Amino acid sequence: MTTDNTDWHQHDFKKYSFPLGDIPRLHHTDPQVDELIKKKQPVVLTGSNLVGAASKWDLDYLEKNMGNGEFTVFISETDKFKFFDEKKLVEIRSVAGVHVKDRPAKEYPRPAKSTTMKIQEFARRLREWKSGDERLYLQQALNSSSGASVVQDFIRFRWDWVTAKQKLHNWGKLTYNLLLIGLEGNVTPCHYDEQENLFAQIHGHKRCILFPPEQFECLYPHPVWHPHDRQSQVDLENPDLSRFPKMTNLHGVQTVVGPGDVLYIPIYWWHHIESVKPAKYSVSLNFWYKAGPVGQVEYPIKGYQKVAIMRNVEKMLAEAMQDPEEVGTLLKTLVLGRF
Ligand SMILES: O=C(O)C(=O)C[C@H](CCCc1ccccc1)C(=O)O
Ligand SMILES: [Zn+2]
């Protein structure tokens, strides 16, 4: 895997069963950049200085300057931090048209539990962390109460540059910036988001493995009503081909982003992200934008549009049937032996 940003040692990286190409790394002034973004293809933009004002955001600085608020921190017994949407549990009960606050019918295992803590406690626990301890991952939307000097840095981001990208590519509004501080070795397993994403790396490095929306059938996402909606059911490190046979068709692209790099993760693209050596922790900040207006539909429709259609079918059927479990039965009746 060639990454001209440093001489990555192959032996350090996990080996996967599927082929991985390279995501192009281009200087942000290269005209190919906007061509790739227009085609919803991932690309690493270098030299943008988008979050140059945050280049000093190491643990010491953030500990001193993030203010006195409580921050959302996920804690996991393993290296995986698979997003779990607690809101879905209530929504499941409301599928039957009844909002019931009691415990959900099914108990879902939670890979990582969510808690809050002050930045000082988080920093202390990160410094004291040793192999075998539970892992921590701070994931908090930045806002105006994030400490005065951090807000000053935030204001000095290259908002002209990123807003020009937003306008040029007809993205919707900026929903929020998620600040991510995690231990080397933390993994955010394969999932997709319904937003355009300019992912800025600030401290340390992250290995990002991406798959296009068309590989939906190889990645077997949880149902839309599941708390792991948008997350793949498959474990890329330990493929279960009896349950997920189409994993053998997986082929992705990858890159390693370092400080100053910005990775464009197109809407609906699958991504699997790992904080890698040598730094002990990594700091990233994403810029999530709502999808732009659909505009004139072109045929044949694109992979990501099929994903949006499948999501709507699942939602409509879940709403129509009393019990989400019946959705699978109805869909099998609809297609098996008929199409
Ligand atoms: O920026 C992105 O989209 C990423 O996936 C970055 C990822 C953490 C995201 C956590 C998360 C996943 C799903 C819903 C809400 C929050 C990382 O860098 O570890
Ligand atoms: Zn994501």
Automatic annotation (TrEMBL):
<dbReference type="InterPro" id="IPR003347">
    <property type="entry name" value="JmjC_dom"/>
</dbReference>
<dbReference type="GO" id="GO:0036140">
    <property type="term" value="F:[protein]-asparagine 3-dioxygenase activity"/>
</dbReference>
<dbReference type="GO" id="GO:0005737">
    <property type="term" value="C:cytoplasm"/>
</dbReference>
<dbReference type="InterPro" id="IPR027452">
    <property type="entry name" value="FIH-1_dom_II"/>
</dbReference>
<dbReference type="GO" id="GO:0036139">
    <property type="term" value="F:peptidyl-histidine dioxygenase activity"/>
</dbReference>
<dbReference type="InterPro" id="IPR041667">
    <property type="entry name" value="Cupin_8"/>
</dbReference>
<feature type="domain" description="JmjC">
    <location>
        <begin position="134"/>
        <end position="306"/>
    </location>
</feature>
<dbReference type="GO" id="GO:0045746">
    <property type="term" value="P:negative regulation of Notch signaling pathway"/>
</dbReference>
<dbReference type="GO" id="GO:0071532">
    <property type="term" value="F:ankyrin repeat binding"/>
</dbReference>
<dbReference type="Pfam" id="PF13621">
    <property type="entry name" value="Cupin_8"/>
</dbReference>
<dbReference type="InterPro" id="IPR014710">
    <property type="entry name" value="RmlC-like_jellyroll"/>
</dbReference>
<protein>
    <recommendedName>
        <fullName>JmjC domain-containing protein</fullName>
    </recommendedName>
</protein>
<dbReference type="GO" id="GO:0005634">
    <property type="term" value="C:nucleus"/>
</dbReference>
